[in-house]
Structures are given as C-alpha cells and as structure tokens.
C-alpha cells in the first residue's frame, strides 16, 4: 500500500514538473519568442524582409538610375555650351569631334544625344531661344520696366549672334525639313509685348507701340551691324531704340 502511494506521489510530482516546464516554454514563446520577438519585432515583418530587405532592394534598384539621368543632363548641357562656343570661334565650320573634345566627352556621347549635326544645331537654337524668352519675367522682377527691356535687348543681341554662327545649317535644315521651323518671331514679339505693357503701366514706356514694330527695329539693328560693327555701336543703337519707346517721344501732331 505504501509503495503504491509512494509511486503515485512520485508520478504526480513528475507530472507537475512537466506541466510547469511546458507552461514556462509557452510563456517564453509568447513573450519573447516567435510572435513578439522573432517574427514581428526583429524577424520577417519588422526588421527583416519587409522593412529592411524590401527598402534596401528598392534603394538599390532606384539609385543607379538617378545618377545616370543626372549625368545625361549634365553631358547634354556641356555639349550645348561647347557647341555654342565652338560655333562662335568657327562659325558654321566647327566639327563634331571638336565640339565633343571641348565638352570633355567622347564622340559616342555626343552622337547619343545628337545623332546629326542638324540635331545639335536645332537643339542649340531652341535652347537659346527658350533662354532669351524665359529671362524677361526675371528682369522685370529685378529692374524698372524700361531698364529691364534694355537689359533684355542685350540678351536678344546675344541670341541673334548665336543664330548667325549656325545660320547656314539652320537654313538648309529648314529647307529640307530636317529642322522644324521655329516660331521665333512670334515668341520674341510676345516677350516684347509683355515688357511694353509693364512699362506702360509704370509710366516709363509708351502705351501706343506695336510690339511687332519693336521686333523689326531690333532686327534692323542686328542685321545692319552683323560681323563688321563693334559691340559699342550695337549698344548705342539699342539705346536709341529704347529712347524712342519712352513717353513723350511719339510723333508730333
């Protein structure tokens, strides 16, 4: 009888210890193991695949492309600057090789951006036209309208000189259709109109001027002074144009 009770007591204690160990294991698993500690906090979801791995993969996938685009933009800008300078030094005759060397890039890079000489000249012309048109609002924000118009005339003169250095290529391209015919006159006249209106409102420029007439006056100055005349003479003639646009300079009745 005593042996049976002793055996029963031993079995009961063993069962209790086993139950306690299982409870401890379960408690450890729930508190610091699979659910809270491993999987969500430090494992697959929070620290592993989703937050860490996916973000790193996205960064690795996207980062190589961004510098490539930035490099391409920089190379294109360098090529256009080099082309402008090369054509100024050798109007109409600067070679593609010389332009690539001046830009500090290989000839292959140049042709990837501009497959033909016409494509390069067209891009240069369009970029310079965009610049001369886009600078007008900034000048009006910084200067009194009449002064802004005079400063803009200088920028327009620079554009006309760049156009002169590539004109033969432009003319041939326009004739064959390999270069799209631009709306240069319309855009220049619209820009002049913007500045004349600002000057009329400020009382520093006449309000009875057709902006198209001003375009023709400026073209007359540029064509008549091309190549042979000095920058000082061009500046004097542009001053006279501006003087004619001031209030009180209209035709006497």
TrEMBL record:
Q: Name one Pfam family in it.
A: TetR_C_43
For this chain, one GO molecular function annotation is: transcription cis-regulatory region binding
Its recorded name reads TetR/AcrR family transcriptional regulator
Which species expresses this protein natively? Streptomyces triticagri
Q: Where is this region: Disordered?
A: 1-73
Annotation: DNA-binding region = 95-114
Superkingdom, according to UniProt?
Bacteria
Which positions fall inside the HTH tetR-type domain?
A: 73-132
| Ranges annotated as biased composition (Basic and acidic residues) | 7-19
Q: Which keywords accompany this UniProt record?
A: DNA-binding, Transcription, Transcription regulation
For bias type Low complexity, the affected ranges are: 52-65
């Amino acid at each position: 009888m005593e042996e049976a009770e002793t055996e029963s007591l031993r079995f009961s204690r063993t069962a209790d210890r086993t139950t306690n160990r299982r409870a401890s294991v379960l408690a450890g698993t729930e508190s610091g193991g699979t659910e809270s500690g491993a999987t969500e906090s430090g494992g697959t979801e929070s620290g592993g695949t989703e937050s860490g791995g996916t973000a790193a993969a996205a960064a690795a996938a996207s980062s190589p492309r961004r510098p490539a685009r930035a490099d391409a933009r920089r190379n294109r800008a360098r090529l256009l600057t080099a082309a402008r300078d090369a054509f100024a030094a050798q109007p109409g005759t600067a070679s593609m090789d010389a332009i690539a060397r001046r830009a500090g890039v290989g000839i292959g890079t140049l042709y990837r951006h501009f497959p033909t000489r016409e494509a390069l000249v067209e891009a240069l012309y369009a970029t310079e036209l965009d610049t001369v048109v886009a600078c007008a609002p900034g000048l009006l924000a910084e200067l009194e309208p009449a002064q802004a118009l005079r400063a803009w005339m200088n920028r327009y003169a620079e554009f006309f000189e760049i156009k002169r250095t590539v004109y033969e290529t432009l003319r041939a391209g326009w004739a064959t259709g390999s270069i799209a015919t631009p709306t240069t006159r319309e855009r220049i006249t619209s820009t002049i109109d913007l500045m004349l209106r600002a000057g009329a409102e400020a009382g520093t420029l006449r309000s009875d001027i057709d902006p198209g007439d001003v375009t023709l006056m400026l073209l007359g100055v540029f064509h008549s002074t091309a190549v042979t005349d000095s920058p000082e003479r061009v500046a004097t003639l542009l001053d006279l144009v501006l003087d004619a646009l001031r209030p009180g300079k209209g035709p006497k009745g």
